[in-house]
Design goal:
Length: 338
């Protein structure tokens, strides 16, 4: 039987929105336009708005279409927040990850990547602290474990996830949630990318990446994108068959030597728009790529970025988690699935 992890929901006003002079939202960073095609994706007068700030390390944003709000995690303080234009910032779930016992299993106890299941509408967590992928039941505020083992061994600390319309789960499993590479409870000696079928079959997509991180699907769900953190800053692409299986892994873009502008950073979370362009956090901010992997420009917040997602009533707002900030940029294209 799948184990159940108890959680508590606390919906209290947590942090004020970030406003500058005359009640206007704070504007930060720079939008770099390396190719003319970027102007068709990001308006020339677009700015990077700060919606909230003061976080330790914001991550895992996901948009809830039915309620017009954003959920995201602040991993170190083990908290999931919600933000909306009407209600501002509130605590949604605390603790969001590991909650039981005096001997925590790692250094990052909160949850990371979030995703809304396309069939059930349930919120799915990459639960760093509990080393599993879990689903939230909002009737009694419990999490049920979807998967926590591969071939009988405990996962490291699931990081990011995407779920296809047919119910195939794809997720990354680096050891960032553990205390270190020599953590005595580490049972898998590689950082894997996994595919869990709707029938419960667990398959390994690849174990060749040093630190697989962000993950996403093309609009037609024929291509799986995976970011790799570490010295080799690359994004991989894999073909996806009708049964959800993957093959033909190849480099989508290599940014290992990229230092053109902005704060140096690793390849982290990503989002895909309805035209197949990939918006991937990496060195210098959110790097915007064509479906062929050509870099068009970047959204540089001035600090390290962790993840991004599309949202808003029309799906044409890019929400960015960037270290201590939650940011937003109005764009000209809808996110995939809107």
């Amino acid at each position: 039987m799948k184990k159940i992890i108890l959680f508590f929901c606390i919906c209290l006003l947590a942090l004020p929105a970030a406003y500058g002079e005359e009640g206007k939202r704070k504007i930060i960073g720079t939008i770099y336009r390396d190719a003319p095609a970027i102007n068709s994706l990001i308006p020339e007068d677009a700015v990077i708005e700060v919606l909230a700030e003061g976080f330790d390390w914001s991550e895992g944003p996901v948009w809830l279409k039915e309620s017009n709000r954003l959920l995201f995690n602040d991993i170190p303080p083990n908290t999931t927040y919600q933000w909306s234009e009407v209600d501002g910032l509130q605590i949604y779930l605390r603790p969001a990850g590991y909650a039981i016992g005096d001997n925590p299993p790692g250094r990052e106890l909160g949850s990371n990547g979030l995703f809304i299941h396309p069939q059930s509408g349930a919120l799915v967590f990459c639960d760093h602290g509990n080393r599993c992928v879990a689903m939230l039941n909002t009737e009694n505020w419990t999490k049920s474990v979807i998967v926590d083992k591969f071939e009988g061994k405990r996962l490291n600390s699931p990081n990011d996830i995407v779920i296809s319309n047919a119910g195939h789960y794809y997720f990354t499993d680096p050891p960032y949630g553990l205390t270190g590479p020599d953590y005595p409870g580490k049972e898998i000696d590689f950082s894997g990318v996994y595919h869990l079928s709707p029938g419960g079959e667990m398959r390994l997509v690849t174990k060749e990446l040093y630190r697989p991180n962000g993950i996403g699907l093309s609009p037609d769900e024929k291509t799986l994108y995976v970011a790799n953190s570490g010295k080799k800053r690359i994004w991989m692409a894999f073909d996806v068959a009708d049964d959800g299986s993957t093959s033909n892994g190849r480099i989508f873009h290599d940014a290992t030597q990229f230092d053109k502008y902005g704060v140096s950073g690793n390849c982290d979370g990503l989002a895909v728009d309805s035209e197949g362009n990939v918006w991937a956090t990496g060195p210098g901010g959110v790097m915007v790529f064509t479906p062929e992997g050509r870099h068009l420009g970047s959204i540089d917040t001035g600090t390290h970025v962790s993840n991004c997602t599309f949202g808003g009533a029309d799906g044409m707002e890019l929400y960015i988690t960037s270290d201590m900030y939650l940011c937003r940029v109005r764009v000209n294209v809808k996110g995939s699935g809107f």
